[in-house]
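Researcher: I'm preparing a figure for a lab meeting and need a structural model of a single chain. I don't have an experimental structure, so a prediction will have to do for now. The sequence is pasted below. Please return the structure as tokens so I can convert it later.
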Amino acid sequence: MSRTLILTHADLDGMVSGILLLTKLGPGARAKITNGSKLAEAIRSEMANDECPGSVYIADIPLDRAHNADVYNALEMLVQKG
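Model: Understood. Here is the structure written out token by token.
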């Protein structure tokens, strides 16, 4: 499994952002499509994998203030996991 994960949005600029990052980061990177309301859930699901990502890039995902704390907590748990 890849140690580099790109989380991006499924609209045009989100897809372009994801493609540009994939091109820059090379074949070791992988992308996952999500949205602001499911971003924390997507991060937590990655932690459930045997090898969680070492680097996470979030590209063009609009985030409502209601989800900020949940996403921050999910990222903190990912950092603590390693």
